[in-house]
Amino acid sequence: MTFDKKQWAKDNKEKMHSYREKYKKNNLEKYKAMQEDYDKNRKDKVKARVRQKTNYHNEKNNVCHDCHEGVKTEFHHLSYSPNIFIELCRNCYKSRHLEEDLI
Ligand SMILES: [Zn+2]
């Protein structure tokens, strides 16, 4: 039988916990970065799923919300939860994101 790490972790929760605490104590910066990475990945996954759903369930009018230009548009999310979005042309989409990044 090969050694099953996951099963071992399940059977030794106490040990795993103390290992984690020890690691955290000795590598606080690394641990924090790992935690942040994990949170970011999870948020990105949720966002990607919402974007997919939005594209699937909504027809585009291809009229930009900001400049009212009738061109190819993208859904721009004002919020992912609740799911609130508007249609923007490429240019307005870019400038909105630029503004958000500056804040
Ligand atoms: Zn526009």
List strands and helices in order, with pairings:
Blueprint: H1 5-11, H2 13-26, H3 28-57, E1 73-79, E2 84-89, H4 90-102
Antiparallel strand pairs: 1-2
Helix pairs in contact: 2-3
Bound molecules: zinc ion (ZN).
Zinc ion binds next to strand 2 and helix 4.
What does this entry show, briefly?
The protein has 103 residues and is of the alpha+beta class. It has four helices and two strands. α2 crosses α3.
Descriptive overview:
The protein is an alpha+beta fold. It folds into two domains: 13-57; 59-103, no CATH class. Helix content is 62%, strand content 13%. It contains four helices and two strands. The protein has helices spanning 5-11, 13-26, 28-57, 90-102; strands spanning 73-79, 84-89. It has a two-stranded antiparallel sheet. A hairpin with a 4-residue loop joins strand 1 and strand 2 (84-89). The longest helix has 30 residues, at 28-57. The mean pLDDT is 94. The protein binds zinc ion (ZN). Residues 64, 66-67, 69, 88-89, 91-92 line the site of zinc ion (ZN).
Low-confidence stretches: none
Specify the helix fraction band.
Answer: 55-70%
Q: What's the gyration radius in Å? A: 22 Å
Order of helices and strands: HHHEEH
Task: Find the structural class using helix and strand composition.
Answer: alpha+beta
Q: How large a portion of the residues is in β-strands, by DSSP E?
A: 5-15%
> Mean pLDDT, rounded to whole units?
94
What are the salient characteristics of this protein?
single chain, 103 residues, alpha+beta, two-stranded antiparallel ribbon, 4 helices, 2 strands, 13% strand, binds zinc ion
